[in-house]
Amino acid sequence: MKVMCTKCGKIISCYDTDKTVFCNECGNNVFVEEGLNLLNRQYKTYIDRANRFTYQLYDYEKAIEEYKNALKIKPNDFTCVLGILLCNLSMQTLDDLRFNKVEEILNSYDIALNNENTFIFLNLVDDIIKHIHIFYNSINSKFTKNGKFINENYLRMYRDGLNDVVDALEFIKSVFEICDEGELKEFVETNNVPQKVDEEIKIACEKRKDVYEVVDEQYELDNLSLVEITSEQKSMVMKVYIALGASLLVSIGIIIAAAITKINYIYFGLLLPAGFLFWLISSYRKKNGV
Q1: Phi, psi dihedral angles at 209 (to 5 degrees)
Q2: Is this structure's pTM higher than 0.85?
């Protein structure tokens, strides 16, 4: 069992039966219940930050840092491992493909595929397949012209990526054997993931056999990213933060006015910025699938 020191924040190991535990970092005697509550709150803070960096700010490197911080509190937490893996896939570029991270990251942690973790893993497979399709679509839309690659190096990177895709899918297929049998059977009935993986392996292998050409006049692109964050998405994020600042100023003004005039019903004015913020954030989340 682990708790967090209420004075210096160090994570301390203790027994479930302990009432207090000594922190050798600062000399504080920590009540286990208080230290456990503080630890859980800190874990939630890390997860909330990671989600914000991932789904709102698209800062995947900072998100990975927060997931790793959360793992220090709950080692081998599969939700955090999942977040780290998906962030790596989301920040891929053609010259830095990360499908080989699937096996590397999952093998870096001691994950027991019980009922809950099997469910998480099976949903993860769909996300990985989604990123594989993003890879294919980006190749067609950005790195080829009239069916020909615009640069010979891009063709080489694509072929290397296909090999990594096959290896990742083969690894996933091997993991099915150690999944919770009941959860896997139930999942197969509604979403036949093993069949999807077999189909994706077949598609990737067929693509490896294809013969590709390169344009006569090769050229390079400045941006080799696979997932583009649109200007509309960035603009929406900026609007949300501007609205937060404006709403805070309005709220402070209303509170000051109510305090000076001692007219309590002025406080009802706080409903206006709160309602506006709720609408704006809800619209953003709906638009971006958060």
Answers
A1: -85, -20
A2: no
